[in-house]
Amino acid sequence: MFRQLQARFGGPLAMAIVTLLGIWLIVMVTLPQLQMIEYSLKPNLLPAQVGGPDDRLTLANYATLFNNDIHRTIFFKTIWSSVLVTLLTLAVSYPLAWYLAKVATPRQAALCILLLIIPFWINEILRTYSWFIILAFRGPLNEVLMMLGLIDRPIRFLSGNGGVMVGMVYAYILFMVFPVYNAIESLDDNQVRAARDLGAGTVRTHRRIVIPHAKPGIATGCIMTFMLAAGSYAVPALLGSPGSRWFTQIIYNWFFEGGNWNQGAAYAFLLLVLCIGFMSLVMKIFKVGLGDIGR
Amino acid sequence: MSSQRFLAFGLRFYVVIFFAYLFLPLIIMAAATFNDSRFPTVTPWDGTTLRWFGELAADRGMWQALGNSLIVATGVLVVAVPIGIATALFLNTVSSRAKPFLYALILSPLLTPGVIIGISTLIFWRQFGVSGGIFLTVLGQATFIAAYVMLMVTARLQRFDRTMERAALDLGASQWQMFRRILLPYLKPALYSAAVIAFLQSFENYNTTLFVVGYDTTLTVYIASKVRTGLTPAVNALGLILILVTVLFAVIYELKRRREAARTVKGV
Amino acid sequence: MDGSVRLDEVVMRFGDFTAIEKTSLAIGSGEFFSFLGPSGCGKTTLLNIVSGFITPSEGQVYIGDEPMAGVPVNRRPTAMIFQNLALFPLMTVFENIEFGLEVRGVDKRKRREVSERLLALVALEDSGPKMVTELSGGQKQRVAIARALAVEPRVLLLDEPLSALDLKLRQHMRTELKAIQRKTDITFIYITHDQGEALNMSDRVAVMSAGRIQQVADPMTLYREPATGFVASFVGENNRLQTRVIDREGERVRLDGGALGELAGRVGSEARLVNGEAAMLFVRPENLRPVAADAAGPRLEAEIEAVHFEGAWVMLEARLIASGEKLRVQLGHEVSRGQAGAVAVGQRMHFGFEPADAVVLSDDGSPMVDEETGEVVADSQAQAGGMHV
């Protein structure tokens, strides 16, 4: 591989490329992950005990999750809620992506995309914070609902999972819209017309023509959204309550409140495995490869 | 036919609702800045004021955090952009059986939750006695931002006509001169985009930063902590300013990108 | 300034595939030399070996008697004009032309002098500050030439540079290229699959097929004295008839044309003819003329299948009665003066030719070439076998 680089860029530049790539992949990507795994397999020891008889590999940190009812419940709730967020986001994004790709005129589409990009560029924390204001106990949403006479007492939106999920859909929706839009956009208009022409209704056209074509985009969007949702700290921290904790918050607590990094590392690794598992599952269901995701 | 028309109308209506959903929260947050209420809200409206901007300007912690954010973003730029370029050049040049594996490894930071990147960075550097702070924040963020840079550079590199390289060499250029004078200028638009994106990604990052920032604080971390403790509309004032700056950036970036795209279609 | 190029037993293999068979060749300094052949014949590979983009598997390239082994592309005294020109789109015309000097560290004023002189040479005086993307196809072509000349190469390598231009411009550029070559006195090595270009501009042409040079000669000789069946059918149009040698009398050969009866021709330059063995007789369409049914000498009877009126001449597509093979006949003055009478589709005619105008070559098994596309269509051996049944 170095030879190919050298042939194209010459020795010094090839050397620089390989060095930068090597530092990144080894020192920044791989070794920290491996170290995290190693940490997760060791008990939490005092400095004096390191190297002593207790310093051995153990699965105890993983067992903790299964022995702790609260943590286990939160772990599964995080999975379930993230799946729900992903599906919700897909459902909300798909019609818009379809509109942008095939219904809107080029001018309309260009304007819409600019409008989509603007909130996308705005800080995740600020986007989440805006929902904090809306959903507040004495916030505008409750006011409006009361004015309309739909409720007679304000609702505590910020104490359940509902607020967290609404915030997540809002925060990550564009990670779904853009890949799905790109995928639908590359579909030949004539295929849709042909399907219509052959008598297929709207639902069937989408199910048989558009969605199969958009599979790589849908898969990318789902993988990204799930990963962001399951790994989110900001949204549950801002919009959740102690009763609706997220798995990431437990990990954080192990590190900075429990002071048990080994335990935290084990939980973090479980979160990583969860994301990899979800990704593999989606890639298998949609029959797409990693090459489709980079785009 | 009427059901078709109904669907078309429904879709348009949906698009309008969607954009309302996208912007209303931001507008409400911005509006709350001007409400003369101790708590950030728009209901009830207690009178219009600009005093929260003043309070914000007087907040030393905010200025400190802003400074840190700028330092970190600059650091990320310096680390992630060269790595991203190098990786894109590597992928564009090399063909090998190990490539699919390397490609997966290269993409992995994008598919890993940010908190895990933060955690692994924190753990790894502990053995060298480095604890959370600006340095680790730069490294942690650059780990995944480099992959974004790589994707953007790769997209442009794939459209590069490699006979240009051959022509440059044939005319006597060294490989370095070819890189400097032909390849790098060609990549320039993508590099600007990548730099802007990298800067913003760094500036707004929260999940990774939270774990590696230590006792320092970046603006995003600062806002989050303010929301949870000591919330006043000064946070909204800060949000409004950030939104305006971001919108300005986004519009300029997007317009530039479109002009570039139009030129690419026209030229050569 | 010695711009001679010598290939010494050059071989190029890619894995199991031999792109260039053992080739030795000498190109004189200041010569306009073309490699002509169908796509995939190895001509571009040969060009890349001379320019240094590829290192040959065996053999050596000499430029001006200096061996080029180990000399990288950017140190060779060659400059290439690429098929797609490869102008640098982000640079002005000036910057493009001056690029080669800039990387050599020539100072700015000197550079500008050179580029202005070269722009005058290619008749683009005022275009210097323009971006190359603003230029037309023909102008880009000229800039590419000027850019290559700026580095004062001893050898200019041209890789089908005219193929992207439309017909009229292409013909105009031929004249111009030839003029530039004469003015600059640089060795031009030109790669093309278009025989018109090769014959028109070159001092000498090497015809290539399947990684091998078939013949090296000046255009006239190539046309009149093709050395192999491939050259005979690739360069210009030719009717090929499968025959056997009866006997030989000096230059003249008597041939057994099978169903076609007795034929005759002139011995090709490198043909080794043995009595009784297979031979190929090549008669060009313009060397055939209508004759009476009882005329003396070689005579071919054919039915006209199509008549193409081309103005100065008429091209007939006919089919031989005896063998069913195709025959193309070009008629000139006979038709325009009305001497040949009316030529109509379906008519049967007799065509004769002077044996001195028909070349006889030993059947070397060289591949057949499609006249329209220049692609190799079939092995002659297989073809011949089919025809003799």
Automatic annotation (TrEMBL), chain A:
It is a multi-pass membrane protein. The chain crosses the membrane at residues 12-31, 79-101, 113-137, 157-181, 217-239, 264-286. Residues 75-282 form the ABC transmembrane type-1 domain. InterPro entries: MetI-like (IPR000515), MetI-like_sf (IPR035906). It is found in: Cell membrane. Keywords: Cell membrane, Membrane, Transmembrane, Transmembrane helix, Transport. Gene3D superfamilies: MetI-like. Pfam families: BPD_transp_1. Belongs to the binding-protein-dependent transport system permease family. CysTW subfamily. This is ABC transporter permease. The lineage of its organism: Bacteria, Pseudomonadati, Pseudomonadota, Gammaproteobacteria, Oceanospirillales.
UniProtKB/TrEMBL annotation, chain B:
It is a multi-pass membrane protein. It comes from the Bacteria. It is found in: Cell membrane. PROSITE patterns: ABC_TM1 (PS50928). Residues 66-253 form the ABC transmembrane type-1 domain. Its main location: membrane. The chain crosses the membrane at residues 12-34, 70-91, 103-125, 131-154, 183-203, 234-253. CDD domains: TM_PBP2 (cd06261). Keywords: Cell membrane, Membrane, Transmembrane, Transmembrane helix, Transport. PANTHER family: PUTRESCINE TRANSPORT SYSTEM PERMEASE PROTEIN POTI. Belongs to the binding-protein-dependent transport system permease family. CysTW subfamily. This is ABC transporter permease. It comes from Billgrantia zhangzhouensis.
UniProtKB/TrEMBL annotation, chain C:
The keyword ATP-binding applies. InterPro entries: AAA+_ATPase, ABC_SmlMolc_Importer, ABC_transporter-like_ATP-bd, ABC_transporter-like_CS, Mo/tungstate-bd_C_term_dom, P-loop_NTPase, Transp-assoc_OB_typ2. SUPFAM superfamilies: MOP-like (SSF50331), P-loop containing nucleoside triphosphate hydrolases (SSF52540). This is ABC transporter ATP-binding protein. The lineage of its organism: Bacteria, Pseudomonadati, Pseudomonadota, Gammaproteobacteria, Oceanospirillales. Gene3D superfamilies: 2.40.50.100, P-loop containing nucleotide triphosphate hydrolases (3.40.50.300). Coiled coil: none annotated. It comes from the Bacteria. SMART domains: AAA.
